[in-house]
Design goal:
- The complex is a heterodimer of chains A (375) and B (797).
- Helices cover 34% and strands 19% of the residues of chain A.
- Chain A is an alpha/beta fold.
- Chain A has a domain at 5-123 and 232-370: Peroxisomal Thiolase, Chain A, domain 1 (3-Layer(aba) Sandwich), CATH 3.40.47.
- The two termini of chain A are 16 Å apart.
- By secondary structure, chain B is of the alpha/beta class.
- Chain B folds into 3 domains: 7-183, NAD(P)-binding Rossmann-like Domain (Rossmann fold, 3-Layer(aba) Sandwich), CATH 3.40.50.720; 191-416, Orthogonal Bundle (N-(1-d-carboxylethyl)-l-norvaline Dehydrogenase, domain 2); 453-617 and 651-697, 2-enoyl-CoA Hydratase, Chain A, domain 1 (Alpha-Beta Complex).
- In chain B, strand 17, helix 22 and strand 18 form a beta-alpha-beta unit.
- The chains are: A alpha/beta (375), B alpha/beta (797).
- The interface between A and B is medium-sized, with 20 and 19 residues.
Chain lengths: 375, 797
């Protein structure tokens, strides 16, 4: 590699349930602007040096429309010289924003990038306001439009993951997140949005007994429930991506180095397995093996999906989502890529480990992965 | 009259919170206070509880936001800007007096205070209170639940300010929709005084005559025009434990020679029931219970009363009573009470006492027989009041029977002779006064009743299913008269005639669609539909659908305004006739919905079309409103509508057969427009509808059918199909729901049209017929219709 690319900072909003949560009344372009502003202030990057603001968003319409990336530049009172591009890879959107920045730096097309993600699932419904699937595609490949819950059910069957295992995984996610919140481990990353300064999605008193009473959410005779799925959530996250050279010259903080990236497609009806081929590709590019990785940030779209990936890759669960995952912290679609990549980078530093991988599955059948290296 | 802009309710029990909710239903902000209890927030909890109870206290959940809660101890100052303070605290005089002291300190000058007491006389309540309090004070006695029970007993004192009385009477009537009945300051006022006597007589007669409670309730209900709970079912509903409290209160306050004292028996078994936890429906059961040994079977058991003791072995499986008196109900009240059977004798024994008691109390508890009848009709949901019942029996016959049995004949019955308590004179109803003369029943300003008009008029159009009445000032009123007000050929014929009549005449200028049945209309006649399917009368069915469409289009585009004025249920076709009107003036308790999917069909008389139009209208208005906020009429990015939004909203309402649980909910769902009107008092509905019709008639411009309705095309259709498919997978929709919704989606997305094309109203109607007819050929639809006809509820196939 010609240039070294580093992650210099990570901020996120508190996470709150869509509809009933404390961020339901906050516009996504306001939400993201607050987070971006805080990132710029904390990293002390010279705003005029930022090349582009790349915003991941899964349903970029209505209040997330009009190229929200550029509008967030304006809304965060950043210099008009900064560009703005909105990127959509559904759940992987803002991880792709980071990948685009890394690639651009390699191309010598900029020194510093703000890579953010946003999704108000309260204000823009999943599927958007005007879903208009193409009957011709549906005819030849109906699973292109398959509901996410059903793909989790498919994986639960394929990898033989029973309901109890899913519930234990979900409860563990909540316990880890609750412990992290309790011990102030989120304090550095959370940006208060108005009065809202803590996550609203974590359920510290979650238990398998309680969860076992819920009805299946997607298939009448299925095993996946609302509690073993990531909740619909409002939230935003942002990371600052820069060339290491620029960071050093300007005295910016450095959390981790981006070692390799990858994207891979898979069958849509088991989209949740997407991280497996993506991780394989990324690790190969980094010259690493699964055992070499100390920290895993795996987006918990569903417990069944996460457990399938862990099983297939042979990952030690103790290394995964040590501060809790999306089942507890929520999954505002476009936001999660920046959140888990930023989280993995800051965990490398905090835990003093060598390698981390952030990876996630994507509706329609894809996976993305980012390999990080300690500095 | 004083303006009532804000009200305080003190006491957040079932009645207090229910009254608060009804005030918010009328759009009035409420301060709801209760006592301070450590670790509890009584008023707040009461509001939260009301949001969950069925039937709902709020007409729309958002109304709850109009309530500010607090405690009497900390927040009494909140009543400072309230115009009316309603006290609903414990029925204990000292508690009430202590509350009044606090109210008196905090309330503003000239505000009105009322008590919801049901047992304590007004003169006791104002005892020791300052003159200013007595002047502003009265009793407003609501019935439970306050949203649904229409009676409001108003008791005023000699000192009560006349203006305050008018203010409260008006607000209770117009805003809260109550039937306000003026009562004297006597124990139990009207309804409970008579009601408790009737219940007591009902229990005693069953024991004395050894009549089972099943027979007693079967006779003392529908056959005599009383709700189906009868005597024992009603006691179970209100709570058996309440009975001794009511009797104690009456016995301690009633005059010495009151007939209730003779009727009252302190039954041992009643105490036994209460002690064992059998307090009625709120407890383990009461006179009736579900067999606890077979919890799943829901086997109803009835108590075989032994007046002296209660034990659980007295419950046996409830039988279906077959007493001939039940059937005699078809031939009127006299047939019931003269039937020679256990049931007939029971009915007579209960009613002779109750009706005589009512007659003896005229003048004592209320000024007129009419007030007493209204009290029982509105407060106990009797079809007829005691004096209307006596008229039905024949007053002279009734007196003769009393004499035969050696019973006292109350004074007013000696005066009435061969006459009846009510008569019609020169088109007006008159009642028999205590002075022995007849007096007109005067309706308050703003009340217009079709039943009054009918007394002296002939319909201008009439057939076996409908009548059209001249309701004055050039307005005609279309009234369904078919069974359950269903639609048939005759209804359409009468509607066509009505349109022609108004169009041709100089005399008429507007049409109101209205009737006074408990339910506006149940829609199409399903019995007829299944008959036509059975003999494969497909062309006739199609013709019937097209006729309906044409009639409704003719109404929508008539050269005069058409106002629909529903109350109660308006389902299927009954909802579609609302949608085709220029405006809806709905009674607040209107329950409308396009429920065709429940019988495997889709709306065929323009329901799909109107929902699309309404939802697009609403979407477009919202976009315009957003633009207005920034002072613009349009911008490069301002859409008029979205291709799928309106279709999806319509799909949700029709596809799930959503029935609005109030007129306010109907606005939310989109059956009603924001510009449509809501009338709180049932008796004012026709007046309001007529007023609206006349306003619209002033410069009415005939409209043209729409030709440029936007549609979503194939992409929208697939999106709707996929949504249903997901619901099916999760078990929330049945296989046949998917089939029906597929046809619904085809209409709502515009058939074969592309997103870039528009569709006309007629084309949408054609699509409705096409998809409707396809469904009609399906076995799944047939099964649903048949099931609905037999079981009265939808089949989930």
């Amino acid at each position: 590699m010609e240039k070294s690319v580093v992650i210099c900072g990570f901020k996120r909003s508190p996470m709150h349930f869509a509809g009933k949560g404390d961020l339901a009344k906050t516009r996504p372009d306001d939400l993201a602007a607050t987070v971006v502003k805080a990132l710029v202030e904390e990293t002390k990057v010279k705003a005029e040096d930022v090349e582009d603001l790349i915003m991941g968003c899964a349903f970029p319409e209505a209040e997330q429309g009009f190229n929200i990336a550029r509008l967030v530049v304006n809304n965060a009172d950043l210099p008009i010289s900064i560009g703005g591009a909105t990127v959509n890879r559904f759940c992987g959107s803002s991880m792709t924003a980071i990948h685009i920045a890394a690639g651009s730096i390699q191309m010598n097309a900029g020194d510093a990038f703000i890579c953010a993600g946003v999704e108000s699932m309260s204000r823009i419904p999943m599927g958007g306001f005007n879903p208009m699937p193409n009957p011709a595609i549906f005819e030849k490949y109906p699973q292109a439009y398959i509901g996410m819950g059903e793909t989790a059910e498919n994986l639960a069957k394929k990898y033989d993951i029973d309901r109890n295992a899913q519930e234990e995984f979900a409860v563990s996610s909540h316990k880890k997140a609750a412990a992290a919140a309790e011990s102030g481990k989120f304090d550095d990353e959370i940006v208060a949005i108005g009065e809202v300064s803590a996550d609203g999605t974590i359920r510290p008193d979650s238990s398998v007994e309680k969860l076992s009473t819920l009805k299946p959410a997607f298939l009448a005779d299925g095993s996946v429930t609302a509690a073993t799925s990531s909740p619909l959530t409002d939230g935003s996250a942002a990371v600052l991506v820069a060339s290491e050279e620029y960071a050093d010259k300007n005295g910016l903080p450095k959390l981790a180095r981006i070692k390799a990236i990858a994207v891979a497609g898979c069958a849509a009806e088991i989209m949740g397995i997407g991280p497996v081929p993506a991780v394989h590709k990324a690790l190969e590019r980094a010259g690493l093996k699964v055992e070499d990785i100390d920290i895993w940030e795996l987006n918990e779209a569903f417990a069944a999906q996460s457990l399938s990936v862990l099983k297939e890759l042979g990952i030690d669960e103790a290394k995964v989502n040590i501060d809790g995952g999306a089942i507890a912290l929520g999954h505002p679609l476009g936001t999660s890529g920046a959140r888990i990549t930023g989280k993995a980078a800051s965990l490398l530093k905090r835990e003093g480990k060598k390698y981390a991988v952030a990876t996630m599955c994507i509706g329609g059948g894809q996976g993305v992965a980012t390999v990080l290296e300690a500095i | 009259m004083t303006q009532i802009n804000k009200v305080a309710v003190i006491g957040s029990g079932v009645m207090g919170s229910g009254i608060a909710a009804q005030l918010t239903n009328a759009g009035i902000p409420v301060v709801l206070l209760d006592i301070k209890l450590e670790g509890k927030d009584l008023a707040k909890d009461a509001v939260a509880k009301m949001l969950k109870t069925e039937p709902a206290a709020f007409m729309h959940k958002k109304n709850a936001k109009l309530i500010t809660t607090g405690t009497i101890e900390d927040n009494i100052d909140l009543i400072g800007d309230c115009d009316w303070i309603i006290e609903v605290v414990l029925e204990k005089l000292e508690v009430k007096h202590a509350t009044y002291e606090k109210i008196e300190k905090a309330r503003k000058k000239g505000s009105i205070v009322s008590s919801n007491t049901s047992t304590i006389p007004l003169h006791k309540l104002i005892e020791g209170q300052p003159e200013s309090f007595a002047k502003d004070f009265m009793i407003t006695h609501f019935f439970n639940p306050p949203r649904y029970m229409r009676l409001l007993e108003l008791v005023t004192g000699e000192k009560t300010d006349k203006k305050a009385i008018d203010t409260i009477a008006a607000i209770c009537d117009e805003k809260l929709g109550k039937g306000v009945v003026r009562c004297h300051d006597t124990p139990g006022f009207i309804a409970n005084r008579l009601g408790v006597y009737w219940l007591t007589a009902g229990v005693n007669a069953a024991i004395k005559n050894n009549v089972s409670i099943e027979i007693a309730d079967a006779v003392m209900s529908k056959p005599v025009g009383i709700p189906k709970t009868g005597v024992f079912g009603l006691i179970d509903l209100v709570g058996i434990d309440l009975m001794p409290k009511l009797s104690d209160s009456l016995l301690s306050t009633l005059p010495e020679k009151d007939a209730y004292r003779d009727e009252f028996i302190d039954h041992k078994f009643v105490h036994g029931l209460i002690e064992a936890g059998y307090t009625g429906r709120k407890g383990k059961g009461g006179f009736y219970r579900l067999n606890p040994d077979k919890p799943k079977a829901k086997e109803k058991q009835a108590l075989q009363i032994d007046a002296n003791s209660f034990d659980e072995s007295q419950y046996i499986k409830a039988s279906r009573p077959s007493d001939p008196a039940v059937k005699a109900g078809k031939h009127g009240l006299k047939a019931v009470v003269t039937t020679e059977s256990d049931g007939g004798q029971y009915a007579w024994d209960v009613l002779k006492g109750t009706l005589s008691y009512a007659a003896a109390l005229v003048g004592e508890i209320a000024d007129t027989i009419h007030d007493i009848d209204e009290g029982m009709k509105l407060g106990y949901n009797w079809k007829k009041g005691p004096f209307e019942m006596i008229d039905e029996l024949g007053a002279a016959w009734f007196v003769e029977k009393l004499k035969e049995e050696g019973l006292d004949v109350p004074e007013i019955l000696t005066k009435i002779g061969d006459q009846s308590f009510y008569r019609i004179e020169a088109g007006k109803i008159q009642y028999f006064g205590t002075d022995g003369k007849y007096h007109d029943i005067v309706r308050p300003e703003g009340v217009l009743l079709l039943r009054d008009i009918k007394l002296s008029a002939e319909p201008v159009i009439s057939n076996k299913s409908a009548s059209v009445w001249d309701i004055g000032d050039g307005v005609l009123c279309f009234e369904h008269t078919s069974k359950m007000n269903t639609f048939d050929e005759q209804i359409f014929e009468a509607l066509i005639k009505a349109r022609k009549l108004i169009e041709k005449s100089d005399e008429y200028k507007a049409l109101v669609i209205y009737n006074e049945a408990s339910h506006f209309s149940a829609g199409a006649n399903l019995g007829l539909a299944i008959f036509m399917i059975n003999i494969a009368m497909w062309p006739q069915v199609e013709d019937f659908i097209r006729t309906g469409q044409k009639v409704f289009m003719d109404l929508k585009y008539a050269p005069f305004p058409v106002i629909s004025a529903p109350s109660g249920m308006a389902l299927g076709g009954g909802c579609e006739i609302l949608l085709c009107a220029d405006a809806i003036q709905a009674h607040a308790e209107t329950y409308c919905g396009l429920v065709e999917v429940g019988v495997g069909l889709i709306p065929g008389w323009g329901g799909c079309k109107e929902m699309i139009i309404r939802n697009q209208e609403r979407e477009s208005a919202k976009f315009k409103k957003d633009l207005a906020k920034i002072g613009k009429e349009n911008l490069w990015f301002s859409p008029d509508t979205t291709p799928v939004g309106a279709a999806r909203k319509s799909f949700e309402a029709i596809g799930t057969a959503t029935v609005a649980k109030s007129a306010q909910e109907a606005v939310e769902i989109g059956y009603m427009r924001h510009t449509d009107g809501i009338t709180m008092n049932r008796d004012r509905l026709l007046f309001d509808a007529k007023k609206r019709a006349l306003e619209m008639a002033k410069d009415y411009a005939q409209k043209e059918p729409l030709t440029d309705i936007k549609i979503g095309g194939a992409g929208a259709k697939l999106a709707l199909d996929m949504a249903v498919s997901d619901l099916q997978k999760s078990g929330k929709a049945t296989p046949y729901d998917g089939v029906v919704c597929g046809h619904l989606g085809a209409v709502l997305s515009g058939g074969d049209k592309d997103l870039t094309e528009t569709i006309s109203e007629q084309e949408l109607l054609d699509l409705e017929v096409e998809e409707f007819m396809k469904l009609l050929h399906n076995e799944g639809t047939y099964a649903r219709i048949e099931h609905m006809l037999e079981k009265g509820k939808p089949l989930r196939n």
